[in-house]
Amino acid sequence: xxxxxxxxxxxxxxxxxxxxxxxxxxxxxxxxxxxxxxxxxxxxxxxxxxxxxxxxxxxxxxxxxxxxxxxxxxxxxxxxxxxxxxxxxxxxxxxxxxxxxxxxxxxxxxxxxxxxxxxxxxxxxxxxxxxxxxxxxxxxxxxxxxxxxxxx
Length: 152
Prior knowledge:
Elements: E1 5-8, H1 14-23, H2 39-50, E2 54-61, E3 64-74, H3 78-81, E4 83-92, H4 101-115, E5 118-123, H5 130-138
Parallel strand pairs: 4-5
Antiparallel strand pairs: 1-2, 2-3, 3-4
């Protein structure tokens, strides 16, 4: 899997990204790959692409998209003014799982965080994802906080 490539997503990738999200069995089924070029998705994509502290990424193997994730770089006062990198929206296509693609995506993300001068890399994972939790812990992440959400 040495030829896994990571690149910035384009609007052409939206059906792939939304398809992975819609396929997710843990999330609510509100995303529709058939509408991946609709105004809501395009507006979100444009906002991410315009923000230098956001990266929406595609992992490719043999020139085919096999995964996606997003990085957000956030300044803060905590940790002596250190920046943090938040990894979210991590998805690997079902037929490419268990091939170390997720591991390589996460290593790429941590390296990018280091290059950007971040003092911390953080992520959240749905409580139902026991396999993902073991995966992140195997990569050195620790359970340190309890997360809360309020949908508005």
